[in-house]
Amino acid sequence: MTESPFIIRRGSACCNCGACVRRCARGNFAARDGEVAIADGYVCTGCGDCVKWCPVRALSVRPAHPAAIRRLAR
Q1: Looking at residue 60, what is its pLDDT?
Q2: How far is the C-alpha of 74 from the C-alpha of 10, rounded, in Å?
Q3: Backbone phi, psi, residue 13, to 5°
C-alpha cells in the first residue's frame, strides 16, 4: 500500500467495504486483492469525503498546505 502524508488509516479498523473507493472524486483509493489501499499516484486535496463516508471511521485526513497540494498535482 502506498503511504500518504495526508490520508491516515487507523490500524486494522478498515472493514474493506469500498466506501472510500466509491466516494473519492480523485480516485485516491483502489481495491486490490480484496483489500482497500491508497492508490499509486494519488493526489489528496483534503476534501474529507473518504472520512465522511467511512462507516467504521477508519480514516482521517491531515490537511495539507496549498503549496504541497500544487506540488503533488504536477
Answers
A1: 86
A2: 28
A3: -70, -20
